[in-house]
Design goal:
217 residues
Length: 217
């Protein structure tokens, strides 16, 4: 690996610590992961971690290519993605609330289809423009001044990948801890209904929060 793609060790160590602190701070991705883990078990939580990680990396690639700069300067582009993401979260909440209680009670944690959970986690992360804007604001602080072109893109992409990896590890810890609660909730229909309602209203609240927060347009 070309040494110029990484900052000096002193600066890289600051980047790693800062990334860890930021990764453990709960955000939309963490809330999605915890909600899925509690409602559907540890396997679903791990699948959501993978989906969110892929979505985050997609945002990182977009930021490296300059898409986030468009979001930062164009209120229309920002609003379109922002409200699309908020609507998707609210739709997930309504879908969870309308799920039949019988299906919730009879489907074992190991039988939960993982592809929809993975896909929805990816979409949640991709439709959060603040993630791409975060990469644009955060990464330049640790990049080598004066570089440009392909080198700058590769350096930004490498740092982004490191951050996404750290975030995936902390997200996995959230999923494992939250998933440990799931078996205790699956023992009764009432507990299953509470879990389903908690998941649904959490998604709806998160969607409303995403729509109302951030820059006014």
């Amino acid at each position: 690996m070309n040494a110029e793609l990484l900052p000096t060790w002193s600066l890289l160590s600051v980047f790693l610590v800062a990334s860890l602190v930021l990764a453990v701070t709960p955000g939309p991705g963490v809330i999605y992961i915890v909600t899925r883990s509690v409602a559907q078990g540890r396997r679903a939580g791990v699948a959501s971690v993978a989906g969110v990680a892929l979505g985050n990396f997609g945002c990182a690639v977009a930021a490296s290519l300059g898409l986030a700069a468009l979001f930062a300067t164009s209120a229309v582009a920002f609003a379109v993605v922002k409200y699309a993401g908020a609507a998707y979260l609210i739709w997930l909440g309504i879908k969870a609330l309308r799920a039949k209680a019988v299906a919730q009670a009879t489907v074992a944690a190991g039988e939960v289809p993982l592809w929809p959970v993975f896909r929805e986690g990816c979409v949640v992360a991709l439709l959060n423009p603040k993630t791409a804007i975060f990469f644009t604001a955060f990464l330049p602080q640790f990049m080598t001044p004066g570089i440009g072109g392909a080198t700058a893109f590769l350096q930004a992409l490498l740092l982004s990948a490191m951050f996404v990896f750290i975030a995936a590890m902390t997200d996995a810890a959230y999923a494992v801890l939250a998933g440990a609660i799931a078996p205790k909730l699956s023992g009764s229909a009432r507990a299953g209904g509470v879990a389903r309602a908690t998941a649904g209203w959490s998604f709806i609240a998160l969607g409303i929060f995403a729509a109302l927060s951030g820059r006014k347009v």
